[in-house]
């Protein structure tokens, strides 16, 4: 069995295994996964003349038309992984030049791009925010989307006699706006099987089984090609302010979010605590919310500000590592010293595929220095 094989699926709405000629024409792929933005892809095929010799076969066949669905999956050491399920939004044809053959490069985004085509004015009464998200995602079942929306502590839409959510954006923009208010993320992840996608709306997931440990500065077990660490002392932010409680007490109520509530912690020395008193402070100024809603939004600002105090940017060879490092997810790291060893959140990954190699660039994040693990396995 080959250590690496690439599988392609293509179609209009529903993707089927790509024809042999298309698979043989595959040359390379670059896939970007990021928790804060839609995932994207760029896949390059070698172009050849069609049967009629009037045009290239890639243009005579209907497989790579704009807004066709393209799925990229890999098999590494016998285990399958779905890397991308998206729609083609751009094509670039490059005629042959010297030793460089004719190529067609298709670019696109994950299936959430279907949610970004139409701006809609829609009222959402009598529904909490997570239910609104589920209702919007239900319109896209043709893409195999399974919604996972985590309820928020409070919702501005819970009291329809006071306020109704008004959507004045595309479905994707509106869901992202709702996520931002609570320090949540919205992302669509391909898999676990071909044709399925998980649409996640909620806080970053900090529990679960980590990926295999990343080893640095070790001779035999080293599986990281390169890595560097950054500490951003200006990232942590405290939120303080006040709002007018008109409904209950008719007086000014303080709003304060002094620390992150992300659980479980990944750093034993969180920057928002260690850096005191040198921590940025933001004034909460939205006077339209009641105190409970204001506190929820303030807490979301603080939580997101601490997520990327420490970042690790690196590169690895997937065939040596043993499997793709997936985003989002958790991974442990060792060999960089106590301050930088330990558990991290996988914030972004770039997959670089060719017919012979598979490399990844990655970004890991957490809220400070110091490992919370007594021993990194």
What does this structure look like?
This protein has 377 residues and is mainly beta. The protein has four domains: 111 residues, Thrombin, subunit H, CATH 2.40.10; 85 residues, Phage tail protein beta-alpha-beta fold; 84 residues, Phage tail proteins - horseshoe like beta roll fold (Roll), CATH 2.30.300.10; 70 residues, no CATH class. The protein has seven helices and 23 strands. The strands form five sheets. Strands 1, 2, 3, 4, 5, 6, 7, 13, 14, 19, 20, 21 and 22 form a 13-stranded mixed sheet that branches. The longest helix is centred in the C-terminal third of the chain and has 16 residues.
Describe this structure in a few short sentences.
With 377 residues, this protein is mainly beta. It has helices at residues 20-25, 57-60, 129-137, 171-181, 271-274, 291-306, 318-321, and strands at 4-11, 16-17, 26-34, 37-46, 69-76, 79-94, 103-110, 119-124, 145-149, 165-170, 185-190, 197-202, 211-215, 226-231, 237-245, 251-257, 267-270, 280-284, 310-317, 330-334, 342-354, 358-366, 368-371.
